[in-house]
Amino acid sequence: MSKITxxxxxxxxxxxxxxxxxEDGYDTIYTPDADGKSSSLAVRIETSDGIAGEYVGGVPxxxxxxxxxxxxxxxxxxFHRLDFYEEFKRGLxxxxxxxxxxxxxxxxxxxxxxxxxxxxxxxxxSRRHLPAYASTYHGDPNGGLTTPQxxxxxxxxxxxxxxxxxxxxxxxxxxxKREVDAILLLRDxxxxxxxxxxxxxxxxxxxxDALRVGKACDEADFLWWEDPFRDGGISQSAQxxxxxxxxxxxxxxxxxxxxxxxxxxxxxxxxxxVRVNPNYDMGITGAMKTAHMAEALGMDIEVHGAGPAQRHxxxxxxxxxxxxxxxxxxxxxxxxxxxxxxxxxxxxESVGADGTFPVPSGVGIGVQYDWDLIRGNATNTIVFQ
Length: 385
Fold this sequence. Notes:
Blueprint: E1 4-21, E2 28-47, E3 52-58, H1 63-70, H2 81-91, H3 101-115, H4 119-122, E4 129-136, H5 148-161, E5 165-169, H6 176-190, E6 195-199, H7 207-219, E7 224-226, H8 236-245, E8 250-252, H9 259-267, E9 273-276, H10 283-296, E10 301-303, H11 308-315, E11 323-328, E12 356-358, H12 371-376, E13 378-384
Parallel strand pairs: 4-5, 4-11, 5-6, 6-7, 7-8, 8-9, 9-10
Antiparallel strand pairs: 1-2, 1-13, 2-3, 4-12
Helix pairs in contact: 3-10, 5-6, 6-7, 9-10
């Protein structure tokens, strides 16, 4: 029986060209000639049979949670992901559970390597290519995504690259008129055949603001809109009002963690689609549980964010539509750290001419990491053995 012998957690920093904080300090926007600092979390789980499960994609705010969980599975069987899932869910019941995902995904990577197959194959997937949408940075005052026309121009650029869908993250100041103008201009300039989405990311100030923006989404025939206003994307009563008064399907749940919370949201009628992220929602194990819940209810589920774990999950989910290539902009640098020692890429320009991204086919999650770069930029390293 294989046993977990060592777990290494590495928080590391990287530079994002032409980026800086938004006016409120909580989002990243285009900032010319500025090198913004960002960070991520990597994990490496070694076992007694000499195999290592690896993953990069954790959020630094979850480092404490990941470390709390990691030390509890030293000496245990790495195949016992469901046991770990249940333990982690209870152990983090007072917290948001975001520290669990990175460990679970690394264990799936380990299992694929141990069994000499890809995670997608372990999940029963046959799909090899995923249709994608380009998902923007927030608007900025610096000449990147500053005006509605900037969004329309960038959307047309993405369409020329091959994307069949485009999502706008609006401005962070809650300016309703500008948001509405951009929505209507996008549809006018990309035409009727491109799918459009909107994510204000809870920046609209009031329910009435959200209703005005939602009506514009109706007029422009948007596929969905997300987390419109300052309820934080978590109020079931508020989302029900929006569902009753706006035809455009609403997609909330990104800010709720775990299967049970998302099931309650879905059953209550507060969202048209379900949102999930393997990084945030207790790994591939938690994401697939949530996907099967949505399928049983007859609802689509949309996978949040980009990365190899997202691709493997999406490949194994019938009731999903688009891979989110986020975050991108016409002048901003890549929001992804340069961590791959293989040909895997989430660059805007790496989309296929048919508007799709491939599902990695190698063993495990199918990527090789540049551990020299990761460790060379480490700001915090924690080891258990």
